[in-house]
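Pipeline run #58 for the internal structure catalog. This entry was flagged by the ingest filter as a single-chain record with no existing model, so it goes straight to prediction. Upstream metadata was stripped on purpose; only the residue string is passed forward. Reviewer on rotation: M.T. Logging verbosity set to normal.
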Amino acid sequence: MATLIPALNQCLGRMQAGEKRFARRLEEKLEDDYLLWYDVPVGATGHHPDFIVLHPRRGILVLEVKDWRREAIQAFDKAGATLLTSNGPRRVANPFEQARVYAQDIETLLARDPALTHVGGGFQGKLSLPWSYGVVLSNITRRQFDEGKLGEVLPAHRVLCKDEMTEEFPPEAFQQRLWAMFPWQRERPLTLPQIDRIRWHIFPELRLGGTQLDLFAEPDAEATLPDLLHIMDLQQEQLARSLGEGHRVIHGVAGSGKTMILGFRCLQLARVLRRPVLVLCFNRALAAWLEQTMAARGLEHQVRVRNFHAWCREQLVHFQAGLPPEGLAPGDYAEQLAQRVIRATDRGLIPRGQYGAVLVDEGHDFKPEWLKLVAQMVSPETNSLLVLYDDAQSIYRRERFSFRSVGIQAQGRTTILRLNYRNTAEILRFAAAFAKDVLQPEDADEDGIPLVLPQTAGRQGPPPRLVSLPSLREEADYVAGHLRQLHTEGFRWSDMALLYRSSEVGEAATQRLAHAGVPFQWVGKHTRQSPLDARQDSVKVLTVHASKGLEFPVVAIPGLGRPHSRAESPKEEARLLYVAMTRAMERLVVTQAQAAAPHPLATAR
């Protein structure tokens, strides 16, 4: 069965009757290695072909579908057709010429890539994969086509007729009709990297940079072409394009692209919704980074990104519902903010349905009553709610619950992403070994919250380092020197993060970074620390908790096993370490002091 993007059930509401029938025939009569796109824009042209069909051996085919009836066609020439409608004659474009222009747009995009063109010979520089275009006449039979002499305008071999797209029409004959539209056939099938390059050119909105900050960077026609990390995979693309109305939940392992899909969804929603879009997360640093990425695309007025408790405070101030008293401990104050918003919403002081859509990143950090509150903030007109979840990364003690119990109606609209693209296989194995007693998969029904084990995408890299040193100061010096060395090897300072568990380690690390001349930004809430500025070329120094949802090519974690005032159980500490280690995309170094008590899980490696 061919893969249609977006999924058919998400296209039906905007498809014409003939497009629906044709989409079903494509799915039914083509094999698994066919890729299909419906009504997806090509490049920066703004053109929306009805269907694009891609096959590794056959090539690319652009098809326009028309529901015209033979008796409605009054005149037809190369420029267009005159159709008899209930409102009188109407002049429309020739669909064959439309398809030709769209196909040539694609050919122009792809021919810029040397990896997709012929090398040497008489076809030097020409596209090395076949491309073509045609028309589907969903309400005109082949006999009607011939008797009406439509072949004088539409080449007969470039047209698929009504009786050639029925359920009974043999799949082999159906495919033959499609591929008779091509002038030649490729000898060798396209490779998976070549297919990714094709998608990278045709659909620039799928492009990714090397780091999170580049997620929403404007596509650069001269940019280095991507490897596996630089474009959404097919599952991610289909999911991102298929997120329709209603409540939806995505369970995804660390590094599976959840935040990337959230960003893509924000771009889509900002184009079509009149009401604002709200993005909520628990982590302040993640909220700051998301806010910067939205601003970089000019979406700051349409998409509002907030840390959950900052949003609660805004609600209480704006609707004059009363802030908590001063003098409370930070944790108590934050809890009071949430509870006051919940009570004010229940009493009608704070209105429900304020937003056209609400998206929750790192939903596993939210308490059930917070999610219940958030679900009420979605406008009933759109009912658009997206929750991203990974229970393996939950580092705050939250009780188990079902989504149904908090008003999230996602039955039949949940997706699991298991493939980890962020980390190399070596880093993922290393992190999983430290947390092996935590990452035990738990069964759950569709409405429950499963613990999903990650699967590596197969990226390889240097093994992580675990280094023991005599003191914390020597650990910090080693880390500073290691980061300086990586900088000389080509890593930017902003590619690096130093994550710490206790304030003692953070103090020592920042002192030694400063002594070594390493530029850094200490991210946090204290006066000596600052909000995350992802645009600053500096090493980011964060607590493990603050790093959640973020990623960096290089991560250093000093102070492993060092006792601190807020130590959790060994199991919870292992979960924290897993979160910290899986922030690293390419390089990971972990240090521990020989004088300190060894970490109880250090032997797990």
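catalog note: The longest helix spans residues 330-346.
catalog note: The chain has a mean pLDDT of 86.
status: ready for reviewer M.T.
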